[in-house]
Structure formats: C-alpha cells, structure tokens
Amino acid sequence: MIEDTNHNLFAEFDEVSAKQWKQNIQFELKGKDYSDNLVWESPEGIHIKPFYNEEDLQKIILPKLKYPKHWRIQKTITIQSKFNADIILAKIEEGFESFRIILNGDNEALSIEELNKIPSKTPIFFEVQSSSKLTLNEKLGNFSVQFDPIAHLVKTGNWHQSLNSDFNNFKNIFKIFGALSVNIETYQNAGANLVQQLAYAMAHTKEYCDRIMEEKSPGVINFRVALGSNYFFEIAKLRALRWLWDSLATLYNWANCECIIHVVPSKRNKTIYDYNTNMLRTTTECMSGVLGGADTIENLPYDKLYHYENDFGDRLAKNQLLILKEESYFDAVSNATDGTYYIEQLTHQLATKALALFKEIEKSGGFLKQLKEGTIQKKIKEVANEQQAEFNDKKILSVGSNFQPNPKDRMVDTLDFFPFRTKEKRKTLIEPIVEKRLSEKIEKERLQQEKNNETH
Predict the structure, then answer these.
(1) Per-residue confidence band for 59, with pLDDT thresholds at 50, 70 and 90
(2) Pair 209, 252: CB distance under 8 Å
(3) What DSSP letter does each residue of 39-77 carry, written as one string?
(4) 8 Å CB contact between 428 and 157
(5) Sequence-distant (≥ 6) Cβ neighbours of residue 361 within 8 angstroms
(6) 136-153: b or e for each residue (b if 16 or more CB lie within 10 Å)?
C-alpha cells in the first residue's frame, strides 16, 4: 500500500514546549543553575542557549531574504597592463564561473573586442584601484566597473588623490554603471567582531548613498566580505548583511537594487606552520558562505601567506569549492537555513545590535568623521587585543600554532616573501586599520629560532 505523501511524519509526536525542555535539562543538571552552566555569551554580547525551538521564532521578525539560485566560484585576477580575454577563457575551462578583475592602471587596458570574447553569462566585476588616470566616458559592454575609495582610505590611511577628487570619480563611475562596491574584508581581518563588521559595512555604504541620492537608483550593490571560523555566526552574518542592506535601501526607496555578496575566507586565523590545516579552515568558511547565501565564493589557497600565486595552490583552492558544489550538493538548495531556529535567532540579534551601533555612528557624524577621529580604529583594536589575549592564553586554539604544534616543522627556507606586515614611515590622513593574524607572534619566534639553530 502506498502511503499518503502529504502525511505529517511528526504528527504522532507530542509537541514539547520550551518550558518542558528547560525542566528536563534542569533535572539532568541535578539542580545546577541552567543559565550559569549552559548559557554562554559571545564576544558580540549575544547569549547563546543550549536549545532553540519554534517559540523563539514567534518572538522575532523574520526577514524575507532574496538568495541567489546558484553560487559561483570566483577568481581574482590583477591586470597590470592590457586586458587579455584568453586568461579568462582558460580559467572558465578550469571551472571558474565569476571573475573579479582588479585594474591597477587606467581603462585603456580594457578593449571592447577583448570583452566581447567572454561569454555573456559569465559575471565580470572590474574594480578600479587607482583613480588618477580614469577617464571613462561610456559603458564597456555588459560588464560592471566599481570604485571603493573608502576601502582604500581604511586600509592605507590615505585617499587615492583627495576626498573631493576620489568622490568625483566615484560619482562619474556610478553615473555610467549604476553600481556600488563596498569591500569590508579589512574589518574582519583586523579583528573586528561581527556586530562591528555589519555596522561598519552599513556606515561605509551610507557614505556613498548620501552622495548619489540625487542620482538614479543603483542597479546593484556589491559587498565583498571575509568570513571567519565561527561557523553558524558567519552564516548569520551574511543573512544579517542582506537584511540590513534591504532596510537601508528602503530608506532611499531603492527597492529594485540587487544585493550581490562576494565572500572570501579570512586571513586572521590562517597560519604558516602546519599550513595544510588552512584547507580545513577555508572549507568550513566557504561552507558558511554557501549557507549564508553568498552569490560568489573565492577560496584562499592554503599557501597564500608565504608563496607567490602558483598553479598547485590555486587548483586545490578551486577544487575545494568544486567538491562542495558538485560532490557535496551544496548548490542544490538556495535557502537551506531559512526557518532554522538557532540561525534565525542569530541573524535577528546580529542585525539588531549592528543597527543600534550604526545609528550611534550616524548620530556622531558618520563613518568618515569617526575614522578621522580614530574612533573606529580604537574600537576595532580593543576587540582585536581581547582576541589576541585569548589566543595567547589558549582560550582560542589554533591547531599547529598555539595548540599541538609540530616541532619538526621548518619554514624559514620555504618562504617566498616575508609573511608579516612591515611598518612603513609615511604620512597618512588617518590611522589605517591594520590587518593582523593571531598567530604572527608565535610564528616570528619560531622563525627566529630556526635561524638561530642554523648558526650553531
């Protein structure tokens, strides 16, 4: 007999209320306090319970998020001279589906003839890194060109030329392409917590919105986001980012603006010792990107910190994503986390706390004003220093670095370049937000010990 496929498989089970769950947990704890033993607080001030159920969803407003039907494997390519479409075509054959092209020169490096060689279904996102020679007069085919001078200011402490010049170039590009580009990688890589990352993303974005509000509505906004190792929180972070942007777009009556999220693994938790563990870290981070609803995912090669770009590292990074997509079926469902009690709660709390911080920034004069005053930098440093202290005390563990290191590992003769940021004596308008990995101090000590051993 064929059973009715519409039959509710769980109808025979009684519903269990949150109160009943708590009573049972209290019994198992043998009288110990439930809150003291099983509820913990995240660095963002979010209290995490041991269980969530349907009652938790009834207390919050659930966002109606628009997810991409499919996510794409992305590759970043830097163009130093002329753009050659054959490079893109070769990468498409290797399995890449989307491209971020960084233009270090002027737009003369782009030719319509070369762009027309690329299949129209392949998304190409051109990013202008310098505005000094930018003289765009018309749209280049169907491809988008974006310019994010605030990201440059955040990372370097200086504008490309000046505030007025950079924003004039930004507005000129926007008039042609109608696209916004906001890169928030630096905040995560420097140690900002998730609420800060989301709030700074919105404050960063609003600086652009205020300057184009008299122009046409943007057709698309591109966020580039770095993801850390806190698996469920990072999923919720991406969902909260979409929710916050929808709220900001509604404020400007930009309901039709498409939000595209590009993700890449964080550098903050990556190591040069026991470097193969980086592949495990990037795998879970890319999984967070998929389940969080990213449009494109670019993986970080396991040897990115100390090797020049190479075919082996790139191939492994790409194959990690191909396995997720083709063998693990992570591309089969686009909204896998919708309705999940825990992640919905995290999304709501991250978005709510980020919105409150964003409003504080706006009340104090806006993002650029707080950057100039050093407030943003100070807040990130405070959080980053707390993380570093926990790492040093082994409250945050990194396998192969501060936990279970391999004493036989030798790296001093393997480095293609110095894997640490060097201090530069230069004049800056603001204090830059400095990216720093948690394991750097340990790595420097071990490299120095290797050198000392060579001299004896």
Answers:
(1) confident
(2) yes
(3) -EE-TTSPEEPS---HHHHTTSPPP-----SS-EEEEEE
(4) yes
(5) 199, 200, 203, 367, 370
(6) beeebeebbbbbbbbbbb
CB 380 within 8 A of CB 91: no
For residue 67, pLDDT beyond 50: yes
Q: What is d(CA 437, CA 265) in angstroms, rounded to the nearest whole number?
A: 13
Per-residue model confidence (pLDDT) at position 331: 94
Question: What DSSP element (H or E) covers 202?
Answer: helix 194-212
Closest CA to 431 of 130, 155, 151, 149: 155
Residue 438: both structure tokens together: 């948690």
pTM, rounded to two decimals? 0.94
Quote the tokens at residue 49. 């319970």
The two beta strands, 258-265 and 296-297, are: parallel
DSSP bridge pairs for 127:
102, 146
Element of type H or E holding 72: strand 72-79
Cα gap 316→287, rounded to integer Å:
16
Token pair 């198992």: residue: 28
d(C-alpha 235, C-alpha 237), whole Å:
5
Dihedrals phi, psi of 145, to nearest 5 degrees: -120, 130
Count, residues in the chain: 456
Tokens of 184: 């928030």
Q: How far is CA 31 from CA 26, 38, 261, in A?
A: 6, 13, 47
Q: What are the angstrom distances between the C-alpha of 363 and each of 196, 212, 213, 358?
A: 16, 20, 19, 9
**The two structure tokens encoding residue 221:** 């906004």
Contacts of 193 (CB under 8 A, 6+ apart): 43, 44, 383
H/E segment holding residue 353: helix 341-363
Q: Which amino acid is at 390?
A: E
